[in-house]
Amino acid sequence: MPPRIQRHEKIIALVREHGFMPIDGLARALSVTPQTIRRDINHLCEEHILRRYHGGAALGERLENDDFQSQKNKMQSEKAHIADVIAAHIPDNASLFMSIGTTIEAVATALVKNHKNLCIITNNIHVAAIMSGRSDYTVIITSGVVRPLDGGVTGVATVDFINQFKVDYAVLSASGIDQDGSLLDFDYKEVSVMQAMMENARLRYLAVDHSKFGRNALVRMGDITDFSTVFTDRALSAPMREKLEGAGVKWLVAERESVHDA
C-alpha cells in the first residue's frame, strides 16, 4: 500500500478515535510535517471523509452517518442503564429540556415506561417521536433547521425558542469531556442550544457514558461542574471526582447504582 494511503488511513483512525485532531498532533503522531498533514486533510475533505476546521479536522459527511449508526448501536445496555437511573431521579408532573444524542433518546424511552404528566421541550425529533405517544404528555419541538443525520434541530431560531421557557430539568449530553472538565461538541449551533437549555433549567443532568471522557471536540459547551448531577456508567478518575466534590456536584455511577454527594 502506498505511504500516502497508509497515512490517510491512520489520520482517519485518529480522528475517529478522538473526534477532533489538531494538525500538529497528527504530524507528531505520523512523524511527518504539518504541511504534509494539511495536504492529506485537503484531499480527504474533497472526498467528504473529513471536515476541516481551523487548526485540525473532524469527521466528514461520509463517515458521520456511519459513525452515528455505530454510536447508536454501541453500548446500548450501558446507555439504557444510565437512562433508567436518570428516569428514577425525575418525578411525575415535571418539565424538561431534552437535547440531541442517542443517550438522551434512551432517557426518553425510560421515561415513557412509567412517568405521568410530563412536559418535554426538545430539539430532537427522535425524542419527540418516542414521547408523543403518551396522551398525558405535552411534547414541544423547537423551531429551527433539522439535521438529517441525527434528527437534531439547531439554529438561532432554536435558541430564541428555548429562551421562552423555564423548566425543572435539563437532560443533556456531550460529545467529549476534556481532562480539565470542559464539555465539548463539534457543532457550535448545537452548543448554543444546549447552553440556552442550561441557563433556563432549575436542575441540570449530564448523561455521558465512559467513552466521552478524554474525547476531543472543537467547541466548548461549558464545564462539567455546571451540572447538578453527572450520570455515567463507570467510576470517575480521582482528579474528576475531586473536581466535582470541590464544586458540590453529585455524580452517579449507574453500573453501581450509588450516588456520591460532594
UniProtKB/TrEMBL annotation:
The keyword Protease does not apply. PANTHER family: GLYCEROL-3-PHOSPHATE REGULON REPRESSOR, HTH-TYPE TRANSCRIPTIONAL REGULATOR SRLR-RELATED. GO terms for molecular function: DNA binding. The lineage of its organism: Bacteria, Pseudomonadati, Pseudomonadota, Betaproteobacteria, Neisseriales. Keywords: DNA-binding, Repressor, Transcription, Transcription regulation. This is DeoR/GlpR family DNA-binding transcription regulator. Residues 4-59 form the HTH deoR-type domain. Pfam families: DeoRC, HTH_DeoR. The keyword Transcription regulation applies.
